[in-house]
Amino acid sequence: MFCSNIPTVHSATKWIGGHGTTIAGVVVDSGKFDWTRSGKFPSFTEPSEGYHGLVFSETFGSSAFAVKLRVELLRDLGPALNPFGAFLLIQGLETLSLRAQRHSDNALALANWLSKHPKVAWVSYPGLPNHEYHERAKELLRPNAFGGVLSFGVHWRHQACPVKSSITFVLQAILQTLETPRHLSSILRRLPTSS
């Protein structure tokens, strides 16, 4: 969703639908990948037995991946979306750009907050200027959209139960930084406090 030129596989259930009512996936192929260059993709560069010696990369060129998905995987595995599932995904697709940007904005806000917190040892998020791939991410990703995933490490000051205290800390950080659903607040109130 954030990449502009890289072929990707997406979970339509999570991103496109946004509501978890339909199990589906989407393959986005830019048609720019050279299947013959590395020699690591014999199913594209060597004759296909199922199609009388057809070589996908030679016959279909930049569309080789899309055609192979349709004629082999669809034939062999049968992954076809039902009409109602397609309707539900289209409903979610209408708000995808807004939701993707909000995921990115929230991740950046959380990354900034965590990077200033004394209990956090490090934060890895390509939206932070000090991230080693920040400049590369700015080239590859949409402007101001660095994704919704980050990672960080916690200083281990609570030796009695470091895992429980770090989980409590993470949930508290999310709760304090972002607007969260009520059910997460209920879970957090039930967690024991760190000693």
The number of helical elements comes to 9
Order of strands across the widest beta sheet?
1-2
Task: For the record, give the distance between the C-alpha atoms at the N and C termini, rounded to a whole number.
Answer: 42 Å
Low-confidence stretches: none
Work out the number of β strands. 4
Return the string of H and E elements. EHEHHHHHEHEHH
Radius of gyration: 22 Å
Share in β-strands: 5-15%
* Average pLDDT score: 79
Sheet/helix structural class: mainly alpha
Tell me, briefly, the overall form. extended
**How is the biggest beta sheet arranged?**
2 strands, antiparallel
Helix content: 40-55%
Please provide a brief summary of the model.
The protein is mainly alpha-helical and 195 residues long. Helices cover 47% and strands 9% of the residues. The longest helix has 21 residues, at 96-116.
Provide structural commentary:
By secondary structure, this protein is mainly alpha-helical. Helices cover 47% and strands 9% of the residues. It has helices at residues 12-16, 42-45, 56-60, 64-77, 83-93, 96-116, 134-140, 162-177, 182-190, and strands at residues 8-11, 25-28, 120-124, 151-154. It starts with 7 loop residues before the first strand and ends in a 5-residue tail after the last helix. The mean pLDDT is 79.
